């Protein structure tokens, strides 16, 4: 697509996620998709007619306003720093980097140059979670007590460089901080490695946010059952989101009067009404691209910043440290940035 005055955009990586980015970029209003980088070439014919280049420098030389970085996680820092040095904005796939130090270097590189940069935590663009966040911000649940996530399914053969914590649990870490507007205060976890690879295949984590909210995450890629479950329990009931179907339901607490004096003093809950919300279901990846495009144009846009992406990596690293050391890890330090900021 070519539009007068359009932003010129490039793509680094034509793997399984990169191919989806190429499809969206090729049809994105206000954007001209001008080139893709992949040393392996375009094996799947996904480049939509744009030149397929061998190096990031060749893409920079084409003159791009921003680039989407969808190469393996271990290369994010190197590619991101090259783009920042050239004055190119970047949308970097999650996790932003494979180390906290690498994430911090990316933050400094883009912030010091005043460049727009974001992280592709796509769950933020899921219709169910966007609706959930809006409702929590409006106080519909009252005080929040607990967030529970379950993310499981078959092994993704596209992944070779990280384990289930950095690949999948980072989704749940980010979305938990994003929907609640809070940050993690502590985390404790156990991991299991069963596939014969060097990385973990399953993690169970329990944590606490800085307002006391309890968090539970169960993540694995060893299950034939595919599940994407998020529940937020609070003062007035429980929200349940399914990001596979983009459904959001609310189970309310029922006010049941009782004349039994012993029970009158017990503040429990009983089953009340259930509401399933009608939500417009746009493709999350398209929403993510539209938000980032608007951010590059200087418009208000709710993107995942590099600092927020760095915070998610910090929590993910703490999960792995906890599992290795069989101890709880505190995440309260002055230089950690809240998801809500």
What does this molecule look like?
Residues 8-121 form the Gfo/Idh/MocA-like oxidoreductase N-terminal domain. It comes from Streptomyces thermoalcalitolerans. Residues 130-239 form the GFO/IDH/MocA-like oxidoreductase domain. The protein folds into two domains: 7-120, Rossmann fold, CATH 3.40.50; 126-280 and 311-330, Dihydrodipicolinate Reductase, domain 2 (2-Layer Sandwich). Strands 14-13-12-11-7-10-9-8-15 form a nine-stranded mixed sheet. It has a six-stranded parallel sheet with strand order 3-2-1-4-5-6, with helices on both faces. It is α/β, with parallel strands linked by helices. Helix 3 packs parallel to helix 4 (100-112), helix 5 packs parallel to helix 6 and helix 6 (164-180) crosses helix 9. It is built from nine helices and 15 strands.
Features:
341 residues; NAD(P)-bd_dom_sf; Rossmann fold; six-stranded parallel sheet; alpha/beta; Gfo/Idh/MocA family oxidoreductase; Gfo/Idh/MocA_Oxidoreductases
Q: Could you write a compact summary of the structure shown?
A:
The protein folds into two domains: about 5-120, Rossmann fold; about 125-280 and about 310-330, Dihydrodipicolinate Reductase, domain 2 (2-Layer Sandwich), CATH 3.30.360.10.
Outline the secondary-structure elements:
Layout lengths: L6 E6 L3 H12 L3 E7 L14 E2 L2 H7 L3 E4 L6 H10 L3 E5 L6 H13 L4 E4 L6 H11 L6 E9 L11 H17 L3 E9 L9 E8 L4 E7 L6 E8 L2 E6 L4 E8 L6 H4 L5 E7 L7 H13 L9 H20 L3 E2 L11
Helix pairs in contact: 3-4, 4-9, 5-6, 6-9
InterPro entries: Gfo/Idh/MocA-like_OxRdtase_N, Gfo/Idh/MocA_Oxidoreductases, GFO_IDH_MocA-like_dom, NAD(P)-bd_dom_sf
Pfam families: GFO_IDH_MocA, GFO_IDH_MocA_C3
Protein name: Gfo/Idh/MocA family oxidoreductase
């Amino acid at each position: 697509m070519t539009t007068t005055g359009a932003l010129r955009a490039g793509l680094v990586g034509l793997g399984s996620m990169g191919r989806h980015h190429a499809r969206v970029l090729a049809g994105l209003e206000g954007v001209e998709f001008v080139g893709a980088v992949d040393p392996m070439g375009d094996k799947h014919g996904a480049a939509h007619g744009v030149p397929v280049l061998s190096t990031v420098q060749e893409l920079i030389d084409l003159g791009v306003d921003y680039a989407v970085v969808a190469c393996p996680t271990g290369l994010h820092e190197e590619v991101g720093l090259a783009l920042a040095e050239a004055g190119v904005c970047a949308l970097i796939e999650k996790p932003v980097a494979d180390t906290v130090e690498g994430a911090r270097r990316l933050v400094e590189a883009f912030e010091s140059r005043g460049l727009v940069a974001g992280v592709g935590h796509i769950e933020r663009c899921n219709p169910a979670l966007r609706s959930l966040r809006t409702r929590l911000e409006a106080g519909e649940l009252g005080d929040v007590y607990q967030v529970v996530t379950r993310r499981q399914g078959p092994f993704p053969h596209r992944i070779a460089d990280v384990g289930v914590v950095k690949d999948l649990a980072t989704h749940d870490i980010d979305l938990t901080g994003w929907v609640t507007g809070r940050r993690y205060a502590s985390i404790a976890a156990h991991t299991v490695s069963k596939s014969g690879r060097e990385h973990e295949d399953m993690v169970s984590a329990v944590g606490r946010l800085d307002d006391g909210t309890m968090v539970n995450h169960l993540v694995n890629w060893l299950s034939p059952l595919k599940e994407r479950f998020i529940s937020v329990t609070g003062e007035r009931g429980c929200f349940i989101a399914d990001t596979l179907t983009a459904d959001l339901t609310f189970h309310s607490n029922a006010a049941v009067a009782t004349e039994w004096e012993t029970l009158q003093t017990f503040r429990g809950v009983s089953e009340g009404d259930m509401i399933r919300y009608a939500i417009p279901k746009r493709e999350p990846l398209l929403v993510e691209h539209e938000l980032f495009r608007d951010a590059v144009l200087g418009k208000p846009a709710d993107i995942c910043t590099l600092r927020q992406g760095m915070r998610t990596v910090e929590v993910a690293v703490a999960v792995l440290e906890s599992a290795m050391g069989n101890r709880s890890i505190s995440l309260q330090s002055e230089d950690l940035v809240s998801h809500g900021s």
